[in-house]
């Protein structure tokens, strides 16, 4: 698999500038004879998963096809040259020169970097004019990001300046001698100074709408590299709120008010796909019966309400790549399916995606029914008992016995 991935990475980089697709053929010898390979669905899936497993960044543009002959099969992978080179496989830049492939030299890496600059289309890749390298937390980059983004042996031999290193990763524009917008979002000392809406606004409302009193609020400001761990911890400790639910005399199951991973994934997707050109923040609002995550910027590119979530596109490909490197995106194009599965299993029901806002994207996550099962209804039960006692003294005498017996297994109280 390493050889296949290296070949795909090399075809994506297209260092020669041929602008021709590259082909990886599995199932034939060098002399052209078939090897007798039988291509099954498992092999097709294994090769297709190379595109989305996050080891090759940015994601390669590739198709996988099976060709059947009398005696054997061929598996052919077609790879298009990337618009955003250099492409790395596990931190190494692989290129193909003639019939061979190898790790790119410094000169070849520079060629690929300049080619990417000429293909800039997205906001996160554009230069943030008026900024300098001093607007970035360089120590944070060197300590937290570069060791994860670049292979250890390559980083040890790299004697270039920090500006040139960041340029090869798509976070510095050497033409204007300034960081990109993506770099400011990810590593900036004060991102809001240049991108005013680059923060998360958390508010906990009392009741089921914004008319209720504000119980708690918090602003997650600062660069994503520092804020993502804080957001992760906040969701786990303050939002998820696990509790055991007795299912029998000797057994109990743990349910969350909002499942940690699913809630985290929805918020990470909002940060990854939001429009950073606007002044609006990501809204993370919690009500009594639900959580709403709303990010500025509607569906992007090829994605429509009809094909969501089967089709994906990236408004901020370099921010998406960095979040994968930092470990906050596990795998591309599968998050929504896993989110829905986890929500259903936890008793929340499926998340509702709202496309009607046009200039914004909203997802609604309902509170778990299982989390609110017996144990947290004690206050309501006591109030009902008091009301019943006024109407029927006889029933009121019987109620406390049932309550005492039921509450004996109430571990959540």
Task: Give an account of the 3D structure.
- The structure is a single chain.
- The chain has helices at residues 2-13, 41-48, 106-118, 138-149, 152-157, 162-168, 181-187, 224-239, 260-273, 317-325, 335-346, 378-391, 393-407, and strands at 22-26, 56-57, 61-68, 73-80, 88-89, 92-97, 100-103, 172-173, 178-179, 200-205, 214-220, 242-246, 252-256, 282-286, 290-296, 352-354, 360-366.
- The chain has 413 residues and is an alpha+beta fold.
- The strands form five sheets. The chain has a six-stranded mixed beta sheet with strand order 11-10-14-15-17-16, covered by helices on one side.
- Helix 9 (260-273) packs antiparallel against helix 11 (335-346).
- It is globular, with a radius of gyration of 27 Å.
- Mean pLDDT is 87; it is low at 375-413.
Assembly form of the protein: single chain
Total E-strand runs: 17
Radius of gyration: 27 Å
Query: Which fold name corresponds to the CATH topology of the largest domain?
Result: Heat Shock Protein 90
Stretches where pLDDT is under 50 for at least 5 consecutive residues are 375-413
């Amino acid at each position: 698999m390493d050889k296949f991935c290296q070949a795909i990475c090399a075809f994506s980089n297209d260092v020669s500038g041929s602008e021709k697709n590259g082909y990886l053929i599995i199932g034939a010898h060098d002399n052209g004879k078939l090897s007798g390979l039988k291509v099954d669905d498992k092999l097709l899936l294994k090769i297709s998963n190379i595109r989305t497993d996050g080891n090759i960044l940015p994601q390669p543009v590739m198709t996988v096809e099976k060709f059947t002959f009398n005696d054997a099969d061929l598996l052919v992978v077609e790879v298009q040259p990337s618009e955003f080179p250099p492409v790395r496989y596990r931190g190494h830049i692989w290129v193909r020169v003639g019939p061979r492939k190898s790790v790119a030299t410094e000169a070849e890496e520079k060629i690929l970097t300049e080619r990417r600059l000429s293909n800039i289309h997205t906001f996160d890749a554009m230069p943030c004019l008026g900024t300098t390298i001093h607007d970035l937390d360089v120590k944070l980059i060197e300590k937290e990001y570069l060791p994860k983004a670049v292979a250890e042996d390559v980083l040890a031999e790299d004697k270039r300046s920090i500006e040139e290193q960041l340029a090869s990763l798509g976070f510095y524009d050497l033409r204007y001698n300034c960081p990109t917008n993506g770099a400011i979002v990810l590593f900036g000392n004060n991102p809001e100074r240049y991108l005013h809406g680059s923060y998360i606004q958390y508010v906990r409302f009392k009741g089921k709408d914004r008319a209720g009193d504000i119980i708690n609020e918090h602003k997650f400001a600062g660069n994503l590299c520092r804020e993502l761990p804080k957001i992760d911890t906040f969701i786990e400790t303050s939002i998820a709120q696990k509790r055991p639910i007795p299912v029998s005399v000797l057994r109990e199951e743990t349910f969350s008010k909002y499942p940690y991973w699913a809630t985290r994934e929805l918020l990470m997707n909002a940060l990854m796909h939001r429009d950073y050109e606007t002044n609006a923040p990501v809204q993370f609002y919690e009500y009594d019966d639900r959580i709403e995550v709303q990010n500025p910027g509607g569906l992007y590119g090829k994605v429509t309400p009809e094909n969501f979530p089967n089709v994906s596109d990236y408004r901020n490909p370099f921010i998406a790549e960095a979040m994968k490197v930092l470990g906050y995106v596990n795998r591309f194009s599968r998050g929504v399916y896993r989110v829905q599965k986890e929500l259903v299993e936890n008793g929340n029901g499926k998340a509702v995606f709202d496309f009607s806002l046009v200039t914004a994207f909203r997802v609604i996550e309902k509170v778990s029914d299982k989390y609110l099962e017996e144990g947290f209804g004690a206050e309501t039960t006591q109030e009902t008992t008091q009301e019943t006692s006024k109407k029927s003294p006889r029933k009121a005498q019987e109620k406390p016995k049932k309550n005492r017996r039921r509450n004996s297994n109430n571990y959540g109280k």
